[in-house]
Amino acid sequence: GENVEQHPSTLSVQEGDSAVIKCTYSDSASNYFPWYKQELGKRPQLIIDIRSNVGEKKDQRIAVTLNKTAKHFSLHITETQPEDSAVYFCAARDGSTLGRLYFGRGTQLTVWP
Amino acid sequence: DTGVSQDPRHKITKRGQNVTFRCDPISEHNRLYWYRQTLGQGPEFLTYFQNEAQLEKSRLLSDRFSAERPKGSFSTLEIQRTEQGDSAMYLCASSRDRLEQYFGPGTRLTVT
Question: Is the model's pLDDT at A94 over the cut of 80?
Answer without folding.
Answer: no
